[in-house]
Amino acid sequence: MQDAAAQPRSTLLVPLVVASALFMENMDGTVIATSLPAMAADLRLDPVVLKLAFTSYLLTLAVFIPVSGWCADRFGARTVFRWAIAVFVLGSIGCGFAHTLGWLVCARAFQGLGGAMMVPVGRLVLVRLVPKSDLVNAMAYLTVPALIGPIIGPPLGGFITTYLHGRWIFWIDVAIGVLGIVLSTLYIPNIRERDVGPLDVKGFL
Questions:
Q1: Which of 16, 21, 183, 198 has the fewest C-beta atoms under 10 angstroms from its C-beta?
Q2: Which of 10, 199, 175, 187 lies closest to 85 in space, CA to CA?
Q3: Which residues form the domain of 42?
């Protein structure tokens, strides 16, 4: 049970930490769209082919979301959340250094793996940590980044590509991700279940 001093912290800081991860994940789903022509020219590829990088991210995101809850129960919410952000950041770094289509597609898929764990586990943290009386307000913090992320992605990608370089759309994730890891370490407890059954591999497949 949380003490009175911990409740204000959980109802304010924890939703903000989760919201930053949600914003990063949603923005990355669309930020690459307006950068495809410039990235295709940089990699000397047809822009249509680069849609594989767009698709691989969304596909991996969808595939691994179902196992996120089990991972959080088995290894602890904070552990999984931090590792998810770390995987997302490593995927972003891989995208930033990518010089071939295969490298970029694999790095984007790796990003999707991190994103698949970040958002559901973040919501799970809120449900288990925030008092029921404050849960609606806490969830409201997640609504804004969920709506703004996909909208701001394309114009932000176009701006960065025009005035900096297309690869910078991936490097901005590194700063956000490192901050998220630090804040989650400080403010998110490692909530976990004591008796967790084995992963339903057949159901997952």
A1: 198
A2: 175
A3: 27-188
**Distance of alpha carbon 155 from alpha carbon 178, whole angstroms:** 24
Tell me the DSSP string of 70-101: HHHHHH-HHHHHHHHHHHHHHHHHHHHH--SH
Whole-Å CA distances, 19 to 3, 5, 41, 61: 24, 22, 34, 17
Q: The domain that contains 118 carries what CATH number?
A: 1.20.1250.20
pLDDT digits (tens, 9 = 90+) for 45-59: 887 888 888 788 889
**150 with 26: CB under 8 angstroms?**
yes
CA nearest neighbour of 156 among 173, 171, 137, 169? 169
Q: For residue 130, with 0-12 CB atoms within 10 Å meaning exposed, 13-18 middle and 19 or more buried, which class applies?
A: buried
Which helix (H) or strand (E) segment is 182 a member of? helix 168-187
- Domain assignment of residue 131, yes or no: yes
pLDDT tens-digit series, residues 111-160: 989 988 888 888 888 888 777 777 787 777 777 877 888 888 888 888 88
Contact by Cβ (8 Å): 169, 160: yes
Whole-structure pTM value: 0.83
pLDDT digits (tens, 9 = 90+) for 177-203: 888 888 888 888 777 767 666 666 666
Is residue 73 left, alpha or beta, with left meaning phi > 0 and alpha meaning psi from -120 to 50? Answer: alpha
**Domain count of the chain?**
1
Assigned domain for 194 exists: no
Nearest 5°: the CA angle 158, 160, 165 is: 110
Is residue 176 situated within a structural domain? yes
